[in-house]
Amino acid sequence: MTKSLQKIGSPKKRRIGSRKNVRKIQKGVIHVQASFNNTIVTVTDIRGRVISWSSGGTCGFRGTRRGTPFAAQTAAGNAIRTVVDQGMQRAEVMIKGPGLGRDAALRAIRRSGILLSFVRDVTPMPHNGCRPPKKRRV
């Protein structure tokens, strides 16, 4: 017969509820990346740590519907709803890309009640770009 081992120390304390660390954030940065196929909205704090994010695909839109303005509006609303509950009051907006969801996402952000300190377009622009291919010989 084997002897039962005696447990040393107190039993583990179980954590009840959510494991996420909910922190109060007054100011943040909202990044909107609008391509022709999808719109991704990411909310970060000032240091760049992601608080919440959403996209047309995560909101349930599939295929060509992901790039529509309505999908961008829904994605922006979903991303901002969680940070408003955490106490965010002010934000800066960085918009990148040529997609259809740019204006719709910005409209949804304005409607959420967050005060916007500035809106900046950070779309990358080429300074003369890549070298073009050689001319075709006939």
TrEMBL record:
* Compositional bias annotation for Basic residues: 10-21
The entry lists its GO molecular-function terms as: rRNA binding; structural constituent of ribosome
Per UniProt, subcellular location reads as: Plastid, Chloroplast
InterPro entries, A to Z: Ribosomal_uS11 (IPR001971), Ribosomal_uS11_bac-type (IPR019981), Ribosomal_uS11_CS (IPR018102), Ribosomal_uS11_sf (IPR036967)
Supply the Pfam families for this chain: Ribosomal_S11
Task: Name the GO terms of the biological process aspect.
Answer: translation
Per the UniProt entry, what species is this protein from, by scientific name? Garcinia subelliptica
Protein name listed in UniProt:
Small ribosomal subunit protein uS11c
**May I have one GO cellular component term?**
ribonucleoprotein complex
Family according to the record = Belongs to the universal ribosomal protein uS11 family.
Say which domain of life the source belongs to.
Answer: Eukaryota
Q: How does it assemble?
A: Part of the 30S ribosomal subunit.
- Keywords of this protein's UniProt record, alphabetized? Chloroplast, Plastid, Ribonucleoprotein, Ribosomal protein, RNA-binding, rRNA-binding
Q: Where is this region: Disordered?
A: 1-21
- UniProt-listed PROSITE patterns: RIBOSOMAL_S11 (PS00054)
